[in-house]
Amino acid sequence: MPDDATDAPRAPLQVELLPVLHDNYLFVLHDGIRAAVVDPAVAAPVITWLRQRGLELVAVLQTHHHSDHIGGTPALLREWPGAEVVASRADRDRIPFQTRGVADGDRFSLLGQPVEVLEVPGHTRTHVAYHLPDQGELFCGDTLFGGGCGRLFEGTPAQMRASLGRLAALPASTRVWCAHEYTEANLRWATAERPQDGAIAARLRQVLETRALGRPTIPSSIGEERRSNLFVRATDAAELAALRQSKNAWQG
Prior knowledge:
Layout: E1 14-20, E2 24-30, E3 34-38, H1 44-53, E4 56-61, H2 67-70, H3 73-79, E5 84-88, E6 100-102, E7 107-110, E8 113-119, E9 128-132, E10 137-141, E11 144-145, E12 148-149, H4 157-168, E13 175-178, H5 183-193, H6 198-212, E14 220-221, H7 222-228, H8 230-233, H9 237-251
């Protein structure tokens, strides 16, 4: 389970990306002995990956309640019944198997590394992100994407604008681990919206090269999102709402 916040820092954790389903990513953090998983959509590939490496699952971090983020957790708990599940305490009704409810500003230690909880509503009303400040890692679920942001299923443009602003205020070198491979589609749309924008065009070229090699575009960085993500660059809620409406129409 997550350690007490007073534990002495250990060596940096390894972060591994596992692609699952159609375009989901889940993330495994480990120290070579113990592991934590972020947003396990499914269980089987996680179980296989951990067993092959002899790792013990001690924690699952959930950013929000959607099935393609929590779907694998019950099966993982059957394999590792002592694992702790960290999720928004305000979403206990939709993530009932959580064992540690968290809220904005909470801090805990995960495998010896400090974690900060950031409430980032917009995609859902209770969405949270997990920031590892010492390592410069951000696990943001479906709030911030490479070149985009999540659909507003339960929140408002103002909430999403505030949430993206909080994330964009993190150090530029922070690695952004978002839960879907949407970067190419997001940047194709952004290029259509801003055809003269050099930062967006340059990033799209790089992403196309990366995808042609079959590689993920994740992680990105906070600095890159500040430069080339139109939603992060939106100056107010009205602009973000207009961009979100355009993106929804472009997706069909």
